[in-house]
Amino acid sequence: MKKGKVFGKHHVVLALMVLALCAAVWLNMKFSSTEKYLGQATLVNDSEVASGEAIQTAAKAESSEDYFETAKKDRQKALDEAQEIVEETLKSANATQSEREAALKTTTAIATRVEKANNIETLLKAKGFSKAVVVIGDSDVSVVVKSEGITTSQTLQIQDIVTAQTEIPLSNIKIVTIK
User: Fold this and answer.
1) Range of the domain at 147
2) Mean pLDDT by 10-residue block, N- to C-terminus, for the chain (179 residues)?
3) What pLDDT is stored for residue 157 in this prediction?
4) Are 170 and 138 in contact (CB under 8 A)?
5) For a designed S-S bond to 10, which of 89, 101, 102, 133 qualifies (C-beta 3.0 to 4.6 A apart)?
6) Is residue 39 part of a domain?
7) Residue 42 domain flag
8) Angstrom distances, CA of residue 10 to CA of 2, 6, 19, 90, 176
9) Based on the structure, what is the number of domains in the chain?
């Protein structure tokens, strides 16, 4: 029996990539959790509605343009860091063949996710959404679009695009709108 290593370099690399992905998803959820969802009420308090004044309960992002640019930069930074870790593993003289194969498999998975996210964002622009950010997880997809509110048909269009590109079921697709 071999004594020694319990964790190899490929375990560390995979753990770091999973952590980077989790951090990106967490940041996305944290910064988009106060936004309005399809069907969510934005006006409350009957007494003020009757008097002609309304209170908006959904928080509005300071600048949706900043959100989309920041989200894309954060996503690219996380992908660059993950890619750098994989490249270090590939260049390492101490890396075993199985570690290199795992690193190449991870690189392929990252490239596939990026390509799918870009395809979805491009198709959403073609459907009339001026800004969109897509975050693809292992079994779910989050889509953030710039819109005052989306209709049922627009929701179906988004879901159709996502399922066609990723084959992820409708129940695992989250759509968030930002004004």
Assistant:
1) 9-178
2) 64 80 76 53 43 42 70 85 81 81 83 90 91 90 89 92 91 90
3) 93
4) no
5) 102
6) yes
7) yes
8) 18, 11, 14, 10, 35
9) 1
